[in-house]
From TrEMBL:
Ranges for domain Methyltransferase putative zinc binding: 6-67
Keywords from the named record: Methyltransferase, Transferase
Record InterPro entries: Methyltransf_Zn-bd_dom_put (IPR013630), Methyltransf_Zn-bd_dom_put_sf (IPR038576), MeTrfase_14 (IPR013691), SAM-dependent_MTases_sf (IPR029063)
Pfam families, alphabetized: Methyltransf_13, Methyltransf_14, Methyltransf_23
Residue ranges annotated for the C-methyltransferase domain, each copy included: 247-405
Species this protein is from: Nitrospira defluvii
Tagged with keyword Heme: no
Protein name from the UniProt record: Putative Methyltransferase
Length: 422
């Protein structure tokens, strides 16, 4: 049980959603001198609250420790850069933003999104707790302050600045240990007729597509529309619209306003998605408790494939040193006896080792040198981008393998002998 109960409603947590054993912090990449040092592991166990049905992890490390020097830079993904540009194009048109507008992004990372507003002459501010990442944004001309966001930061900003017309929070809500403080801060900061957009991975897709590897210690909560609606409503914010988007294997973008701002009515699209979640069981505890076996089956299938491939003398490398890679490989116990090395485009990760399993991380160019038989795509949410970039792998007969939602050789060949073979 969690020591402090549900982080939203305070109910004692007694129901396990998924137990992935012991795991290190997913983004705690190791340098050579750290490989022989003791490494902290923590229970990677998600609970579901029987009252509000929020799926959540216990907090073992503070956000200060996790995010003060962060290894994730959004600009290394072409997909996310295009997603950010498309979002800005949409927001400018839909909300009639211009030179008179003011936009604030929470967890603004390296400025990959706000730089598009800056290019349009729209005033912006990024709020980013990782100093090393914020410094990159500032060099791009994106004003950024190094802070964690909550009610205190919101009050400070209101005292110093005008309240923003648009607040953006992409892939940050899951990283917040104190949900009520964070959403309460949104309420304080937002202009009276302002709009909030928040993007987060959709729990419905996580469960339907076995995306259990997106569970790691840096993500404190996992949201359905049903649950996030409760959180915002508690703080006087109305979610009035929603988009289903493709990022991170299936996400939601919610649109929220002050309860008092009645000019934007709740859309039919939002009501339809709430009914869809209800029909699939997201209003009942039993639905959440059915997920564990799906993760175990993916583990068995991946190990079956890796064991068979190695017995056949095949070489295997992996693409993507993201947090989901750490979760999957640590859960499955996959080390260099199965995977020779990892590659990643992020220069911040190259020359390091993945936590826990200690697999070295190299530049993707190394694949051209070693010509592996299989490239295991651990960043499966970017598999189309990766296979396009690495299409030369097929020149020597190499093949791409994706582990989630089931083990298969891309584009559509299921692994024979696995539990998912056709």
């Amino acid at each position: 049980m969690l020591r402090d109960g549900c982080r939203f409603c305070g109910t004692l947590l007694q129901h396990v959603f998924l137990d992935l054993g012991m795991s290190p912090l997913a983004n705690s990449y190791l340098k050579a001198h750290q490989l022989n040092q003791m490494e902290p592991f923590y229970p990677l166990r998600a609970f579901v609250c029987e009252q509000c049905l929020l799926v959540q992890l216990e907090e073992f490390e503070s956000p200060d420790h996790i995010f003060s020097d962060y290894a994730y830079f959004s600009s290394f993904s072409d997909v996310f850069l295009q997603h950010a540009k498309d979002y800005v194009d949409m927001a400018v048109e839909r909300f009639s933003l211009g030179a008179q507008s003011y936009v604030v992004e929470i967890a603004s990372n390296d400025g990959y999104l706000l730089q598009n507003f800056v290019a349009r002459g729209i005033r912006v501010l990024g709020i980013e707790p990782a100093k090393n990442v914020a410094e990159v944004a500032i060099k791009k001309g994106v004003p950024s302050c190094v802070k964690f966001f909550g009610t205190q930061t919101a009050r400070e900003l209101v005292a110093e600045e005008r309240r923003p017309d648009l607040i953006i929070g992409n892939n940050v809500l899951a990283h917040v240990p104190d949900l009520n403080d964070f959403v309460g801060g949104l309420k304080i900061l937002l202009a009276p007729e302002g709009i909030i957009t928040i993007e987060f991975p959709h729990l419905m897709h996580l469960m339907a597509l076995n995306q259990f590897d997106t569970i790691y210690h840096e993500h404190f909560s996992y949201f359905s529309l049903t649950t996030v609606n409760q959180v915002f409503a508690k703080h006087g914010l109305t979610i009035f619209d929603v988009d289903e988007i493709s990022t991170h294997g299936g996400s939601l973008r919610i649109y929220a306003r002050h309860d008092e701002h009645q000019l934007k009515p709740v859309t039919e699209r939002l009501m339809a998605l709430k009914k869809k979640e209800e029909a699939q069981g997201f209003a009942t505890l039993a639905h959440y408790l059915s997920f564990s076996e799906k993760a175990r089956e993916v583990k068995r299938a991946l190990l079956e494939f890796l064991i068979r491939a190695k017995r056949e003398g095949k070489s295997i490398v992996a693409y993507g040193a993201a947090a989901k890679a750490s979760t999957l490989l640590n859960y499955c116990g996959v080390r260099q006896d199965f995977v020779d090395y990892l590659v990643d485009r992020s220069t911040y990760k190259q020359g390091h080792w993945l936590p826990g399993v200690h697999i070295p991380i190299h530049d993707p160019e190394r694949i051209k040198e070693t010509k592996p038989d299989y490239v295991l795509i651990l960043a499966w949410n970017l598999k189309e981008e990766i296979m396009k970039q690495m299409s030369y792998v097929r020149n020597w007969g190499g093949q791409f393998v994706v582990p989630i939602p089931e083990v298969r050789i891309c584009p559509d060949q299921y692994v024979e002998g696995s539990s998912f073979a056709k």
